[in-house]
Amino acid sequence: FQHLEKSAVLQEARVFNETPINPRKCAHILTKILYLINQGEHLGVMEATESFFAMTKLFQSNDPTLRRMCYLTIKEMSSISEDVIIVTSSLTKDMTGKDDNYRGPAVRALCQITDSTMLQAIERYMKQAIVDKVPSVSSSALVSSLHLLKTSFDIVKRWVNEAQEAASSDNIMVQYHALGLLYHVRKNDRLAVNKMLSKFMRHGLKSPFAYCMMIRVASKLLEEEAGSHDSPLFDFIENCLRNKHEMVVYEAASAIVNLPSCTAKELAPAVSVLQLFCSSPKAALRYAAVRTLNKVAMKHPSAVTACNLDLENLVTDSNRSIATLAITTLLKTGSESSIDRLMKQISSFMSEISDEFKVVVVQAISALCQKYPRKHAVLMNFLFTMLREEGGFEYKRAIVDCIISIIEENSESKETGLSHLCEFIEDCEFTVLATRILHLLGQEGPKTNNPSKYIRFIYNRVVLEHEEVRAGAVSALAKFGAQNEDVLPSILVLLKRLFEFLNPLQVKEGFDATLSYMFMTVLEPLLGTPLPRYNAVLGSQKILPCYR
Ligand SMILES: *[C@@H]1O[C@H](CO)[C@@H](O)[C@H](O)[C@H]1NC(C)=O
């Protein structure tokens, strides 16, 4: 379908008018039209309406593939073509017809083109469809009703008796969809939701999907109640830890560990099932368990210590995401003596994991630094190595944030930290990070034993970078002069030289105007001689307020 031409495709759609209908050919053209729409191609109202009306003729064919393509086209075109209600009677016929394969999709297409006023006309059919014995029909009607709630709440509300009936279906999807509709009809009425939950908690459910949803609803109510978890809702969630479906067990465990203000006693059973999942042969379960334990470890490290042995086994997991999460969890729960070993292990595959997981590693290091100040050297080195390697903005920002917070809290790590950051801005593609580091250098650099070491790096930034970084660098240099008497004379020389270098450049606006302003107001009084006026920037309205 590459390089499809809209006009050519619409031309082809004339085939729809031919008799006898060629189902294969027509289905192929409909596919092309849907492809174009999904690629973002704009169809004008005229074009869309014309093809739509041509398409309606295809209902004469009984070819199942072609019919299903028609349903899809109706749904896609319902918002761009005019008079789509023309197909209402064809769809109603299919919806109530004998062919079960047509009925579900016809319900969905019909609900898509129906507005509140027309909905009353088909209400009777919808109620029947909801309780239909064919699961695909019932599910289609339930899910369509859910969508209709947005526009026709008061009408759909009248269908709860049918939805109740569907909720006791043996089919797991029908039960799930029915419960979804019932919940969304009632979700603004706390009492009704509570009643609904207790009813299903008493009778039990067949569908694991429905259980997962109930767990989410119950934990939402618990969160809103706040305070004690001594409630049937909590008991329900806890009971779900013993469900026979892993999906339900995980959902319950995840709900419990995410509840605010959970006690150690309440957490324990949830952590136990996550521990069991850690040794599951299914990667998805191991991943879910270790990812959740990682989160628990941030708030309750001691609750996760019991899983350390299982987590150790995951350190060598062939799935690197699982291994990373296991290591970073152990870093939070393990002892100081295990840090070096774990860091070595993780560095062996840092290059294989995505930025998202690298950020997880940085966050773990950040937490470690606060806990074990003696480990700074090892951890900082790790961060510096990561800083030199490839990575996107979020990842690099996490590293820089972490280094800066270490520097701010520990004076002994300041000099090495600043030097590495200087090196980083030599080749940094992220303006935000470069200006942040320059700001830090201006703040911390003048107080160090050897300020001139940093001045060279900063000076280079003015000469080599674009306006924003340049402005940050000039400002940092000025701070060195202001805070340190010894370097003031050389800073003045540098600033004067920079002024002569920068001003003849095509000074446009924004940052360079700000710079000129800075030079005139700061440097002139210091030098005691007026600087030459190169341009009319002074007095410009564009001077950034922060530099005034
Ligand atoms: C690890 O397992 C999870 C869960 O099954 C999966 O989504 C992910 O793609 C896997 N990652 C790798 C790197 O194999």
TrEMBL record:
Cellular compartments per GO CC: COPI vesicle coat; endoplasmic reticulum; endoplasmic reticulum-Golgi intermediate compartment; Golgi membrane
Localization per record: Cytoplasmic vesicle, COPI-coated vesicle membrane; Golgi apparatus membrane
Pfam entry (one): Adaptin_N
InterPro entries per record: ARM-like (IPR011989), ARM-type_fold (IPR016024), Clathrin/coatomer_adapt-like_N (IPR002553), Coatomer_gsu (IPR017106)
SUPFAM superfamilies reported for this sequence: ARM repeat
UniProtKB keywords: Cytoplasm, Cytoplasmic vesicle, ER-Golgi transport, Golgi apparatus, Membrane, Protein transport, Repeat, Transport
Keyword Ribonucleoprotein belongs to the record: no
Membrane-protein topology: Peripheral membrane protein
Domain of life: Eukaryota
Family in the record: Belongs to the COPG family.
Protein name per UniProt: Coatomer subunit gamma-2
Source organism (scientific name): Gopherus agassizii (Agassiz's desert tortoise)
